[in-house]
Amino acid sequence: MKRIIPKSQIYSGSDTTRNHYINSVRNTDTANIILEASRAWDGLDKFRKNARRCRDYTYGKQWNDRIKDPATGKWITEETYIKAQGKIPLKNNMIRQLVKSVLGQFASNQTEPVCVASDRDEQKLGEMMSIIMKYAYPLNKMWDIDRRTLEQYLISALCCHKIQYGWNAALNKEDAFVTVVNENRLFFDNRMADYRYWDCNLIGEIHDLSISDLIATFAGNDRDKALELKQIYATATEDCLRSNYENLTSDHLDNLTFLVPEDYNMCRVIEIWRRESKERIKCHDVLEAQYYKIEIEDYPKIQAINEARMQQGAAQGLAPDEIPLIETEWFIDRYWYARWLTPFGDVLREMETPYWHKSHPYVLSLYPFVDGEVHSFVEDIIDQQRYINRLITMVDFIMGASAKGVLLFPEDQIPDGMTIEDIADEWTRYNGVILFRPKPGGAMPQQISTNATNVGAYEMLNLQMKLLQEISGVHGALQGKQANSGTAASLYAQEAQNSALNLVDLLLPAFNTFREDRDTKLMQTIQQYYREKRYINISGNDYSEEAKWFDPERVKNVHFDLTITESTSTPAYRQQMNDFLMQLFASGQIMIEDLLENGAFPFADRLLQSIQKRKEEMIQAQGSIQQSPQDPNSAQIPPEIQQQINNNTAPLMLQALQQ
Fold first, then answer.
1. What SS3 state is found at 113?
2. Reduced to 3 states, what is the DSSP secondary structure of residue 344?
3. What is the tens place of the pLDDT at every residue in 532-553?
4. Considering the entire predicted model, what is its pTM?
5. What's the Cα-to-Cα distance from 461 to each of 82, 389, 390, 391, 453, rounded to whole Å?
6. Bond from prior residue into 368 cis (ω within 30 degrees of 0)
7. Which residue among 322, 324, 365, 535 is the one 20 to 30 A from 126 at the CA level?
């Protein structure tokens, strides 16, 4: 049996230097934590600027890059410079169409989470968790969230979700919910290098709450705490409109600072999840078959329990080495600690992570995360978009400066009694006539119309359009464009498949891995916080009736592996499944009950209940009327009643009853 470590070797209350070095929670100043979080947020400033640039190019603001004005030396936008030339900054937004094509490719292949228990004997529990995850998806509108998140992922190369269990005022219910964290409010460890983010030691976000929401969230049932919060945020007025009345704009996110909210009527709260370290003791209770950890201060309680067991074992005549004691081991515990702080360092709430997964509630993904850099899908094609806009604007410049129907009328040929204005008016008039006598040897009037745009601009424009498709990997077949005449259907399908290969790394390993990590945390949160049994019946499922009853006690300590698979809830899949079952039913291989139980029919449950009820009524009627051979007093079924039963019973059901 493992030796019990003496208390003197584990902890000494007078050794303050050692405790100060190891225990990072007890001796951490909130001001330093805010400073650390502020540095992490500032470290993402370059990324946020680049993400805003990619967003502007995606949604049509493609002349917002700043250049130095040659005349004044000031920094102005390209749009301002072009307008100063008396021209209109033209653009042809190709990026938006490419992004929508990728979103359409993702939406057309709808997937869903499937949970598999690590132990094969507990596979029914895996089906149970799969059903509860399918319930959580429509509750959180996950398919809509995933499409919008993927759009943000394509633009900025970053996406982040947060999984929590709590009260949702909009839905008026308590459940596990997924929220999207805006990249402008997010910060995380700037020393992180692992593309799986396992080395992350700091993550959090900044919140702007109204004073009413702040008090409702952090005051609890303590009125003194509520008054204290009102005093801390004295400048925030209750239920006041924003000082900036412009709506549906990103300015309030683009102009964020770390400590001060953009709207002075709001309350800034900084949520920080930080990995801390602390001295603790691992305990293995051999008698109770339990593993757990305790604080250093609780070690005397373990000693008291062991001493009591030694005395009890000695009284029973057991040898000292046969007495099951609690084995202990000193270690440095690394765990996540959460704080909600004001910009002044006041602690609104703090706690060690309450989740069973022992981590923070955030799920993060960066693509591609190589050597600490990320470059989004949109960023790769910005240069081609800029050149397309430049060529279009150049062609417009040339067309505006070229001669179009200019009349050259020699002065010595102007007829008597007419002016050049009269000639111009007559020239542009319908059926106009200008009479003049040409002088011998004089120049005749002529009209000039030139095509000065044939300078290679159109060839360059076509080249850039092709390069845009080549670089992005989104070709015409993937966009659903009409094939050329004579193109075989198999060839077109192959072109669409080959085009989709360019997006496999983005959609499958990257974004689907993010979804699996998020759904795993959502599943673990549901395992932890669902405390009551509930019946979950998802339309179109082929799970057993036992799996539809979610029992939190049975799944509490079970480990599940979650994967993202093709969804079976699409209309095409349900139609194919129903057609197959109908073929089996028509050939007599299955009964009507089998068809309704395994098919995806909207009326299946009600029809099954009706059939079952009719069968029970007929069995009761036959049992009360039919004469038994051993009972001479019993009566035979009257012929008219037997005829009624036969007429109202389906052939297959009647055959089953007779069997």
1. strand
2. coil
3. 888 876 655 556 666 778 888 8
4. 0.76
5. 20, 9, 9, 6, 13
6. yes
7. 365
